[in-house]
Amino acid sequence: MKKNLEVTVKDLQQRLDEAENLAMKGGKKQLQKLESRVRELEAELENEQRRGGDAIKGVRKYERRVKELTYQNEEDKKIMGRLQELEEQANSYMAKLRKVQHELEEAEERADIAESQVNKIRAKSHESGKAHSAGTVKLARDHWLSTYWPITGPTFPTRANLG
């Protein structure tokens, strides 16, 4: 019986050694699998960090672009405001120009009428045989202008300085 027990113990010891060896091999394989999985996860983490960094760079780039476009938009608004002011000023100048042109046309008409009357007075003076001096003609013209031409002052327009 003792021998049976020794054989059984020896057999059990052998099985235990085999089980330990199998467990060791299985543990090593399991450890290798886990280490491999850790390396895979580390690589994925590295890739995700790189993509995250790239995404942050992209966001910053777009933020800068938004700031640039906002500034450009503000500048465009300022320019548009200035252009509107200039357009209003140009319209005002054009209205003044049209008014002055109209006044000039009226003044030219009055000057033509005055010249015509001066010529009539000269013709009458020649017909009647009276010799009028240039001063008399100028006097008649000045009288007519002061009567029919309401503009007075140091810049009194005449046909000579209008043309």
Features:
single chain; 163 residues; mainly alpha; 3 helices; 0% strand
Task: Note down, in words, how this protein is organized.
By secondary structure, the protein is mainly α. The protein is about 90% helix and about 0% strand. The chain contains three helices and no strands. Keywords: Coiled coil, Cytoplasm, Motor protein, Myosin. It is found in: Cytoplasm. This is Myosin heavy chain, fast skeletal muscle.
Number of strands: 0
Spans where pLDDT lies below 50 across 5 or more residues: none
SSE order, one letter for each helix or strand: HHH
Average of pLDDT: 83
Gyration radius from CA atoms, angstroms? 57 Å
Describe the global form.
rod-shaped
For the largest beta-sheet, the strand count, sense and barrel status come to: none
Helix fraction?
Answer: over 70%
**What structural class do you assign from the helix and strand content?**
mainly alpha
Beta-strand proportion: under 5%
The rounded distance between the terminal residues' Cα atoms is: 152 Å
